[in-house]
Amino acid sequence: MLRLMTIASLQRGFAAGIISAAFILGTGPAALAQAQRSTAQQPAKPAAKKAAPASTKANAAKAKSTSAAKPAAAAAAAAAPATGPGGAALLASYSDWNVYTAQSGRSKICYALSQPKDRLPKNLNRDPAYLFVSFRPAENVKNEVALVLGFTTKENSPAEAAIGATSFDLLTKASNAWLKNPAEESQAITAMARGASMTVKTQSARGNSLTDQYSLSGFTQALERARKECS
Fold this sequence. Notes:
Elements: H1 2-26, H2 28-41, H3 54-69, H4 71-79, E1 89-94, E2 97-104, E3 107-114, E4 118-120, E5 130-136, E6 141-148, E7 160-163, E8 166-173, E9 176-179, H5 185-194, E10 197-203, E11 209-215, H6 219-229
Antiparallel strand pairs: 1-2, 2-3, 3-5, 4-11, 5-6, 6-9, 7-8, 7-10, 8-9, 10-11
Helix pairs in contact: 1-2
């Protein structure tokens, strides 16, 4: 029974690893950071030699006032990355969670995704981490919980995801992780919808005990949007 459960987890986790790898390579926070870095490196435009007409100044002041009155909307617009390789694109943002979709041939993939708010120990360098829940209708996959850890894990080391008093064992492979028992995914989704945060504890290949804490603010809305997009 345990062997069958592990095989099922590996099969689902392998697919999750493919999705996460494609995401990191071309879309989402990683691509956004690259875009922002490129923008920051562009030379500043020279100042205009002539004063702008009064009407132009008025329009600029109006635009500035509107932006100041709607900081959340302005931030959301600025955070939306362009479509990346593979067609993955940001659909919406809900507090600490984003919704992405990608099309590969006739197969559509939708997922709600977030990054950790806190990572311990703070003095250890590692790649970005992601927690996401994916839907792949062509494979009849729903509510698949997976993580990209940002470092290589120690083989056969214990790992868990805790939401309040509820915890779930994780199965790790290289730098990815997913629920050890796929049958617990619905239970995990319910706990995530009700909880405030998720704490993920793992061990690196170097023997370091690492902890990532994810906010669950906006998770329910992001999950519903991802589910709707792939329904």
